[in-house]
Design brief:
This protein is α+β, with helices and mostly antiparallel strands and about 300 residues long. It has 2 domains: about 80 residues, Phosphorylase Kinase, domain 1 (2-Layer Sandwich); about 140 residues, Transferase(Phosphotransferase) domain 1 (Transferase(Phosphotransferase), domain 1, Orthogonal Bundle). About 35% of the residues lie in helices and about 20% in strands. The strands form 4 sheets. A 6-stranded antiparallel β-sheet has the order 3-4-5-6-8-7, with helices on one face. It has a two-stranded antiparallel sheet with strand order 1-2. Strand 1 and strand 2 form a beta hairpin. The longest helix is centred in the first third of the chain and has 22 residues. It is elongated.
Length: about 300
């Protein structure tokens, strides 16, 4: 029967001190800095080779560079893993398919297409795609910076002031302007895809290019009968019509409605903005993100 006895902390500390002494000194002579770093790298490599045999399954390794910390978000088909770079210690998000869908060609192609789209952008208000990796079982993995807080994840009783709400909207509109300039429609502007950097609302970012398509195309062109969130998708998007920037403007209006509900005291201009953006007919809405930017309360 395996023992549950924990290692003696004093013994562990002594062994660590002995290891550090061996790294820093050759007998009594202090090693040169480059020698120290070389030894540290060798120790790290030795531990990394041994670690997969010691860690639980949840700490599996990806691309020989990342350890899985946890499954942060899981849907029916995809999951976002919280991973840590082995050498740098930095945190990242990794979007991949769930094991049960790993052989689905359509989903695999969709994730690769999302990576190709994300890699086109380096913008302060867009979640960047860092790389497309391959997991050991063949699944593609979309690597991105780790930003765990979204607008949707804020507590329901957390209020914003009008300036904070305006900063979030401005950030999203600047992101949409860049996306539309590239000839694309995001098609999924929802609170779950608005990532917040702590309380720096002016640095809010738009992410997730899973259903982004070129202007003038339809989602059925990529094998999707219908795409978007029912609460935020414009009526014509939900009907499967050709993508147009005004569809993102409709979703932006719905997003502004959610933000406004968190603002205790807001001016009438919020209601006017929401009404203009959420018109049922596409031609009755503002036609560009830049146009809406001029309407945001100062």
């Amino acid at each position: 029967m395996a023992s549950d006895k924990r290692p003696d902390p004093t013994l562990v500390a002594q062994r660590y001190a002995d290891l550090w002494q061996a790294i820093q000194f050759d007998d009594q002579a202090r090693r040169a800095p480059n020698e120290e770093m070389e030894l540290i790298d060798q120790v790290r490599n030795a531990l990394d080779r041994k670690a997969p045999n010691l860690l639980p399954e949840s700490h599996s390794r990806i691309a020989n560079s990342f350890l899985v910390e946890a499954v942060a978000i899981a849907s029916d088909q995809t999951e976002i893993l919280h991973v840590r770079h082995i050498d740098l210690g930095s945190s990242h998000g990794l979007k991949t398919l769930r094991q049960s869908w790993c052989d689905d060609i359509v989903l695999t192609q969709s994730l690769r297409r999302e990576a190709e789209t994300g890699l086109r952008f380096r913008h302060p208000n867009i979640i960047e795609t860092s790389a497309l990796l391959r997991l050991e079982d063949g699944r593609p993995g979309l690597l991105m910076p780790w930003h765990p807080v979204t607008l949707a994840s804020l507590p329901s009783d957390q209020f914003l002031d009008e300036q904070e709400g305006s900063m979030i909207l401005r950030s999203v509109l600047l992101a949409l302007h860049a996306i539309h300039q590239e000839g694309l429609v995001h098609c999924d502007v929802t609170p779950s895809n608005i990532f917040l950097r702590e309380n720096h609302f002016e640095r809010s970012m738009l992410g997730d290019f899973g259903i982004t398509i070129p202007i003038g195309t339809r989602h059925k062109d990529i094998g999707l009968e219908r795409a978007g969130s029912p609460e935020f998708a414009a009526p014509e998007q939900w009907r499967g019509e050709q993508a147009h920037p005004a569809q993102d403007i409709y979703a932006l209006g719905k997003l502004a409605e959610k933000i406004a509900s968190r603002i205790a005291e807001r001016r009438m201009i919020w209601s006017e903005l929401i009404e203009r953006c959420c018109q049922t007919r596409r031609e009755d809405r503002p036609q560009s993100a830049w146009e809406v930017l001029q309407m945001i309360p100062e």
